[in-house]
Amino acid sequence: MEQLKQTLTKIWQEPILVGHQYLPPKIYDLLWNITEGILTALLYPICIVVGVVSFLYYNLIKKGGKDLFKSSEEYNYEKILIVGSSSGIGRSLALEISSKFATRKNQKSLTLTLVGRNLAANEKLKEECSAIIKESHPVEDFEINVRQADVTNAERMKEIVNEMDYDCIIANAGVTIFVMMGDKKPSEFTTLEKIQMEFKCWETNLTGCTNTAFPAIERLIQDADNGNKKRRHVILTSSGTAYFPEMGLYPTAKSALIGIARNLRAKLESSPKYSNLRVSVLVPGWVHSSMSKAFPAKEMQLGMISSELAAKLTWSGIERDFEIIDISGVWGLIMRVFLKFPFNLSSSLVALLDR
Ligand SMILES: NC(=O)c1ccc[n+]([C@@H]2O[C@H](COP(=O)([O-])OP(=O)(O)OC[C@H]3O[C@@H](n4cnc5c(N)ncnc54)[C@H](OP(=O)(O)O)[C@@H]3O)[C@@H](O)[C@H]2O)c1
C-alpha cells in the first residue's frame, strides 16, 4: 500500500509521459488507452462545434456570405505539365484534358507536356491526344510535347518545369513497393530489402514530387513578383492511405504531401500579391492502374473506380480550384477511422497488415 502511494505520488509529481519508469509496461499502455479514449470522446463533440463555428465565421463573416451558394466556375488552363503521364491516372488526365479542349468553344489554344521515364508510352499517348483534338481544332491550335525524365533527378525536373510558362503543373508520379517488387511476392524479400525498397519508394513519392513542385512554386512567385497576374496552379498527387500513415513510407510520404500542399496554399493565400497562385492536393482511393494491378490483396481494394472517372473528377476539381480534391471515397473513410484508433490498437493493426 505504501509502495503504491509512493508510486502514485511520483507519477503525480512528474509528467505522465515518464510514468513508464514507475509502472509495469502493460499497465502504462492500458492507462494511455483509457486516456486516449476519454480524450477522443471529449474532443469529438468539441471538434464538431469548432468545425461548424469556423465554417460559419469564414463563409458568413470573413467572406460576407457571397461565395456560399455560388457554384464554382471552371477555369481553362492552357499550358499544362503532367508529370507521371505514361499510365494510369496521369494518362487518363491527358486524355480528359484533350477531350475537354476539343469540345470547348471558348479556349483557343492548348499546350500539353507529358513526362515520365517510359518515352514510348508517352509518345503513344501524344498520338492519342492529338487525334482527339484534331477532330475539332487545326494543328496550329495545340502543341503536345514529350519529355523523358526520372522525378528523382532534381536538376532535370527543374529544367522541365522552367521550359515554358506553364499555368498548370501536376506532380502525379508515384510508385508503391508492390510495383517495385515486380513479379516477386512480399515473402520473397528479406526485411532489410523491404525497408530499403520503402526508402526508395519515399524518394519517388516525396522527393520526386517536391522536385517538381518546389521549382514550379519558385518560378510562379518570381513571375507574380514581376507583375504576372494570370492564374497558375500546382497540384500534388497524394493518396487515401495518407490518412493512416503508419502503414509504411508510401502513406507517410503521401501524408506529407497533403501537409505540404495545404501549407503552401495557406502561405500564398495570406499574401494578396500571390492571390493568382493556387496549390491543391489530389487524394485518390483505389483507381484501376498499373499501380493497383500490382497490389497483392485484391480483396482490400474497396471502392475501386476507373482511371477515366478518376481523371474526370480530378480535372473538374483542378479547374474549380478545390484545395483538397478528395476522390478516395470509402477507402479514405476507412483510413480516417483507422487514424482515430488509440496507438495500441493501430499498432496491432499495422503489424497485421505488414505480415
Ligand atoms: N491507383 C491507385 O489506386 C492510387 C491510389 C492512390 C494514389 N495514387 C497515386 O496516383 C498517382 C498515379 O498513379 P497510378 O495509379 O496512375 O499508377 P501508375 O499507372 O503506375 O502510374 C504511375 C506514373 O508515375 C510515373 N512514375 C513512377 N515513377 C517515376 C519516376 N521515378 N520518374 C518519373 N515518373 C515516374 C510513371 O511513369 P514512368 O513509368 O513512365 O516513369 C507513371 O506514369 C501516383 O502518385 C500514385 O501514388 C494511385
From TrEMBL:
Q: Name one GO molecular function term.
A: oxidoreductase activity
Asked if DNA damage is a keyword of the record, the answer is: no
| TM region(s), chain numbering | 38-60
One matching Pfam family: adh_short
- What UniProt keywords are attached to this protein's entry? Membrane, NADP, Oxidoreductase, Transmembrane, Transmembrane helix
User: Per the record's keyword annotation, is Transmembrane helix included, yes or no?
Assistant: yes
Q: Which domain of life is it from?
A: Eukaryota
Q: What PANTHER family would the database entry show?
A: DEHYDROGENASE_REDUCTASE SDR FAMILY PROTEIN 7-LIKE (PTHR43391:SF14), RETINOL DEHYDROGENASE-RELATED (PTHR43391)
Family (UniProt): Belongs to the short-chain dehydrogenases/reductases (SDR) family.
From the Swiss-Prot or TrEMBL record, give the protein name: Predicted protein
Organism phylogeny: Eukaryota, Discoba, Heterolobosea, Tetramitia, Eutetramitia
